[in-house]
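User: Hey, my collaborator sent me this sequence without any context and asked if I could get a structure. I don't really work with proteins. Can you help?
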Amino acid sequence: EKSPNPFVVMADRIRLKQAILNLLSNAIKYNRTGGSVTINFNADKPRRLRICVEDTGWGLTPEMIDQLFQPFNRLGRESQAESGTGIGLVMTKHLIESMGGSIGVSSTAGVGSIFWIDLNQANQLVSDADADADADADADADADANAVDISFATNRQTVLCVEDHSANVLLVEEIIATEPALRLLVARDGLSGVAMARSDRPDVILMDIQMPGLSGMDALRILRHDPLTAHIPVVALSANATAHDIRDGLAAGFFDYLTKPMRVKAVTETLKRALKSGREPVESTTNAKTAA
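Assistant: No problem. I've predicted the 3D structure and written it out in structure-token form, which is a compact way to encode the shape of the chain:
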């Protein structure tokens, strides 16, 4: 049923829909038998709209809430039957914050939880006809994914992730999954990464530094000396996070140097910058340093 007083928010429709579906999925997954899930909204704050997803599950303790938005943390529920990686809420937080919103939770152990999303209201209400047309456009959602500034380019671009740790690959997969304009290739070691870079010519490479066999540093040297791959921006991923490590990585020719544990926002913003760098393949061997 349509609200008699509709509200319009500043958001990307596809990403907002994905965020709400993530919250609804969790509310159902971690509910109790015979429980319920309710979604509602209010506009108690000026120019802000709050969307709430309320469940009657087992609730969360303050200690659990403190850990809630950490990747790969399922709050001790790893042994339960429900599947999942623990990345969903991290990605939901990223989606909402990228649209200028915020997300939070209030919960009482043994009673249930309320997950909320705050978004800025738009200045103009849509008509019923516009709202119906917008609903019909869901079938063409991918075509509208670049309607706001948080999206990547409209042409499909390729990211190659060279990483041997499954947890880090899962996080990158979740990040790329939120961007319809991107596709992901994965190599589990340096040699495979170099081979895939030569054969698939990705638009950007995420490169782990410490890998068995060929290290990320050695892989970068090979890529920089090959005319087929010398133009590709390569972003370092490393647990070595000292100022010396970062300085050496940038001096070696990495486009940027991201430290682990990876932060979703940092990865996304770095990918956008790298993809917009617009370098072309070179005709001769080069070892030129790239901009940080």
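In plain terms: Confidence is low (pLDDT under 50) at residues 78-85, 126-151, 282-292. You can pass these tokens on to your collaborator as they are.
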